[in-house]
Design brief:
By secondary structure, the protein is of the alpha/beta class. It has 9 helices and 12 strands. The longest helix is centred in the N-terminal third of the chain and has 16 residues. The structure holds aspartic acid and magnesium ion.
Amino acid sequence: MARIVMKFGGTSVADIDRIRNVARHVKREADSGHEVAVVVSAMAGKTNELVELTRAASPMHDAREYDAIVASGELVTAGLLAIVLQSMGVDARSWQGWQIPLKTDMAHGKARIADIEGEALGEAIDNGEIAICAGFQGIAPDGRIATLGRGGSDTSAVALAAAVGAERCDIYTDVDGVYTTDPRLAKQARRIGKISFEEMLEMASVGAKVLQTRSVELAMAYKVPVRVLSSFDPPDAPGPGTLICDEDDIVEKNIVTTVTPDFNEASVTILAVPDEPGRAAGIFNALAASNINIDMIVI
Ligand code: ASP
Ligand code: MG
């Protein structure tokens, strides 16, 4: 009997039917004797809609009010999932960020997690109640709601897993794992069984959008194994997904694990640069002045 955290992204909770499907995944884990905390995102498209509303109200707005508005999407999903679980005879309740409390710093709109007091949550799940936590949010030192930056529910989930001493954090999304490359671009792409935290960070840094980068950093720091799997797999027979774990836990080590395309990069060749001190610096200074990032230099 293990303690686990299950996280469901926006497409997995896009409507009531999908929330019902998520509830079946949660019930499966609870029925198998696990202590379960769940983290949910807002329903697909909801956060974008809320961000647009704040912009429409005023393009220059108070970041604390932005947070109050955009954090609401997750509150709705958490409540709906609790209701659906209760209707299935499962003991569940919703937890808003401040109720946990998940404490952040003062950087409203892109806050970092400062501390999580996991005792109350731990006690609830100890007693067999499923804790449905609103992702993406916490409470700042000013006593007001703060959000963790777009995609922040992944980070909420990993941080909560660390705080309640969960054995692993299962992140349910609309793909059934991490692939050797983007399957929409190459049909030879294969699902990876296990990948290290470092490799996952490397992928995220070049734009692979599986998980928020900070969630992987946190998982690595606190050694929380993270599994990426699909909520669209049948709840009674989920696929194995991809396990993101410590390098030492991977027996078969590959030299190259994945290929991640980056479409925001251009290759520029400059010919006949005189081999004199200061010439290269002159080029780099000009690029830096135009905010052009240099990723790789080949001489
Ligand atoms: N709902 C938030 C977003 O769309 C957080 C998340 O889904 O992770 O960015
Ligand atoms: Mg996401």
